[in-house]
Amino acid sequence: MIHHDPKIWGEDVHAFKPERFLDGIAKATNNNPTAFMPFGMGHHICAGSNFAINEAKITIAMILQRYSLTLSPGYVHAPHPGLTLRPAYGIQIILNAL
Ligand code: HEM
């Protein structure tokens, strides 16, 4: 149920809407600190969370400096819940050099 509760995220809970976080995590979760924990919580919270977030930011920035991205027409939207939510058939992206 974590990250999938419509009472927290709204009826469009399963839609990919990164703009939910535009005004920060506290606002997106109605100030509910246990509603969003992609790196776990407590004593065993992910030891690599800061590294992972920085790595993701640097990687995304480097890609966006060089390419524009469009979703391939062949993409099939099929979120698959596991430990993390994953696209069942991958995400086919077309990269156009800027
Ligand atoms: C987006 C990337 C990542 C996500 C979403 C993620 C998520 C998680 C989650 C959910 C846990 C379990 C926390 C718990 O049991 O409450 C965990 C544990 C852990 N993660 Fe990550 N992780 C990521 C990247 C990394 C990286 C890059 C490293 C190391 C460089 C790392 C090292 C660890 C370690 C060592 C633990 C075990 C912590 C413990 O049991 O004390 N993780 N991670």
From TrEMBL:
Q: Tell me which family the UniProt entry assigns to this protein.
A: Belongs to the cytochrome P450 family.
Name of protein: Cytochrome P450
Listed cofactors:
heme
Its record classes its membrane topology as: Single-pass membrane protein
Which UniProt keyword terms apply here?
A: Heme, Iron, Membrane, Metal-binding, Monooxygenase, Oxidoreductase, Transmembrane, Transmembrane helix
**Entries under Pfam families matching the protein:** p450 (PF00067)
Q: Which organism is it from?
A: Linum tenue
Extract one GO molecular function annotation from the record.
Answer: heme binding
Binding-site residues for heme, renumbered to this chain: C46
Q: Which domain of life is it from?
A: Eukaryota
Indicate yes or no for the key word DNA damage.
Answer: no
